[in-house]
């Protein structure tokens, strides 16, 4: 972002949620009421239908349903869907969507999608996001399913006010779900169907990465989806420990965990702390970054184009030559600066641009900049740049400066046992750094290594109160969780824990068969402009829109890596007990 100081002529001082989503569709008997000949005809259809279902002739049963009246058709299609699931234990999403699209009632579609998500979660194959995405693809960009009460519900996911369109343009999302039905459906369908043991809060839950990888590999080989408990890493919300047990060929991570639910943005969060759960796809992404094939560092940057900065400098110089702005012209002048600056480029490095990590980094960076220029509330302890400047307007630079803010990781220490088989991550955090950059005549930004007082104060406040902000806005907690996973990956790489465990990383390796879900890669963002008038005559303009995670530096910094004897006892307690075949997590005693 950058600031412009400009003279001005002095001036004088009802939503409702979806009802009855779960109708007990599985095993519900079809009841068709009729009389006379129509009753006989209906009975014959029922008999044929039941015979087709019993014999697994689902195509013929679907043909019968298509010839039936609307209400009966929907119930028959629902029964086909769940009979097929009961027999095959899995129904490809495309087939589900095909049946949904034949239903005439929007409520039937929603009930079926909801119940199917529940049944698949219980059996270990739920992928509600994929289901919704396919429904939206089949029905258009903004599917509106009409409810029986005449109201519509749009099945689309909102991500904390930020969106990336298919062309890679990141913008602030101003549209809201008109009825509240979207979140109601997703939350009810995606509440974690956990066994009682996993849903219990645990101060130290252990996840074996080697066992987990084997189970994921097995499911991939069998063509089965990765189950929800794997995707959420058994409910871990933070990493505190990393252990390697060479004799057992095992690498284990541990931290607090609990059951999870889904917040209003569809994000899985701990039922206890409210923090986002750690994600398997993020873990795999950073394992690949911190590997011989990876860059061992990742991050993002949002930057204006140099040629557009040059145009802005020329425009500002021309307008200043014309004298002070009129009060009425201030807003249009600020808007013009934003228009001249145009879109800004988003650069992601070290991780795939279409990864979830890329999305979280860019969103967190963008939202930090919006907080900085007063376009997004950061809380009373993180006042924006203008609020800080108001305390002493003389601190504003009179030149056209680029103000740089970026986030990076912050850890107190990484303690380890003498044999370096056990590690404890202490003081996990995120810090904001700042710098003033000089713009030369060609619009090039020149690093100064210095930060003016107001710029520095904003960064300090952001760092000091980051945890408060993370509770208010989950994307910042999400970013911290990604840093934790990345540090785990860096520790594994730096200390060759995978070699000690005789683990080639399998499907998690850089060329492994497990492929995280891809999303539209953020490539550009609109310039957001804000301004304030100080002393009735001075106009200060701010224009917004990085993250850098060099976890390898943390993992090998001798000042942060400290030997500890206490961690040995934790490592002994964390060893896996006798577990059932296929089990990859457990709670410490």
Radius of gyration, CA atoms, in whole angstroms: 28 Å
Kindly, what is the distance between the CA atoms of the first and last residues, rounded to a whole number of angstroms? Answer: 50 Å
Percent helix range: 40-55%
Query: Major β-sheet, in short?
Result: 12 strands, mixed
* Count of individual helical segments: 21
Q: DSSP strand (E) fraction? A: 15-25%
Description:
The protein is an alpha+beta fold and 589 residues long. The protein is 41% helix and 20% strand. It is built from 21 helices and 23 strands. The strands form four sheets. Strands 1, 4, 5, 11, 12, 13, 16, 17, 18, 19, 20 and 21 form a twelve-stranded mixed beta sheet that branches.
Question: Could you provide a short overview of the structure?
Answer:
By secondary structure, the protein is an alpha+beta fold. It is built from 21 helices and 23 strands.
Draw up the topology in text:
Layout: E1 2-7, H1 36-55, H2 58-66, H3 70-88, H4 93-102, H5 106-123, H6 128-139, E2 144-146, E3 152-154, E4 162-164, E5 169-172, H7 181-190, H8 196-199, E6 202-208, H9 209-221, H10 228-231, E7 241-245, E8 250-257, E9 260-262, E10 268-270, H11 280-289, E11 298-304, H12 306-321, H13 330-341, E12 344-349, H14 356-372, H15 385-390, E13 401-410, E14 413-416, E15 422-426, E16 429-439, E17 445-447, H16 453-464, H17 466-472, H18 474-494, H19 497-500, E18 524-525, E19 528-534, E20 538-544, E21 547-549, H20 551-556, E22 561-563, H21 566-574, E23 585-587
Parallel strand pairs: 5-18, 13-21, 14-22
Antiparallel strand pairs: 1-13, 1-20, 2-3, 4-5, 6-8, 6-23, 7-8, 7-15, 9-10, 11-12, 11-21, 12-18, 13-16, 14-15, 16-17, 19-20
Helix pairs in contact: 1-2, 2-3, 3-4, 3-5, 4-6, 5-7, 11-18, 14-18, 17-18
